[in-house]
Amino acid sequence: MKYEEIAWFSSRIEAETIGHALDQYEIPFLVQSGDTGMFGPGMIGRSPVGASLLVPPQHVEEARELLNCVVRPLESENGED
User: Fold this and answer.
1) pLDDT at 44
2) In the prediction, which pLDDT does 71 show?
3) Which DSSP symbol is given to 75?
4) How big, in percent rounded to 5, are the helix, strand and coil portions of the chain?
5) Using CB atoms within 10 A as the burial measure, which of 18, 21, 45, 76 is most buried?
6) Domain residues for 23?
């Protein structure tokens, strides 16, 4: 299944915490980061590479709407929000 990025965070724990807010709406999510294993599972601070929150395409608009009070929207490729 293909997933689309809806937000970026400075740490994996931040992305996972916000992602779990989608659980009650039964919206699946993935957290993707290049930091896996760099600092160990107990690392709760900022990551040098950050972490992306992704959802399936059919849930993108709903997830963005649900999270718009806590997540700054990603800019589109053409520079518009």
Assistant:
1) 56
2) 75
3) P
4) 30, 15, 55
5) 18
6) 4-67
In a domain? residue 50: yes
Q: In angstroms, how far is CA 61 from the centroid of its own chain? A: 14
pTM: 0.75
Q: What token pair was written down for 48? A: 């040098």
Structure tokens at 36: 């896996």
3-class DSSP assignment, residue 70: coil
Would you say 74 and 37 are in contact if contact means Cβ atoms under 8 Å apart?
Answer: no
What are the CA-CA distances from residue 19 to residues 40, 77, 78 (Å)?
20, 23, 26
Distance between CA 29 and CA 22 in Å, rounded?
Answer: 8
> Amino acid identity, residue 35?
D
Q: 54: buried, middle or exposed (CB in 10 Å: 19+, 13-18, 0-12)?
A: buried
